[in-house]
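batch_manifest entry 22 of 60
target: RNase H type-1 domain-containing protein
source organism: Ricinus communis
requested by: lab member K.T.
priority: normal
notes from requester: please return tokens only, no post-processing; we will run our own comparison against the previous entry in this batch. if the run fails, retry once and flag.
--- input ---
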Amino acid sequence: MCKLVVIFWRTWFKWNQSVHSKILLPLEDIVGWATAMLENLKASNAKLVGQKREHHRWKPPDNRMLKLNTDAVVHINKGKSSLGMVLHDHGGVVNIAGLCLLSKFYLLMLSKPWQLSEDSR
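--- output ---
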């Protein structure tokens, strides 16, 4: 069933490419690509012999504290990136959420990590 859904998705994707980007790709690619993608997914989710899976759950911060969760994605070929953040209080309530889409990104190499102390405020 999963393979059938992926084949339908790939068929839609190829049709969309041909309509919007005028890119025509061989139809033989659909089943082969779907099979390879599902095999890669299965292999990446496979448990190695003797390996224990750790399950991590989000935990709220202590009372009178806030927790900032962040995530980012970079599309190197497109030169674009985006950043997201969510600020929770001790009750798990979202106080602030934000998203930043960047059209260009720069990789910064810092020689030593920044430090924030009471003196730097």
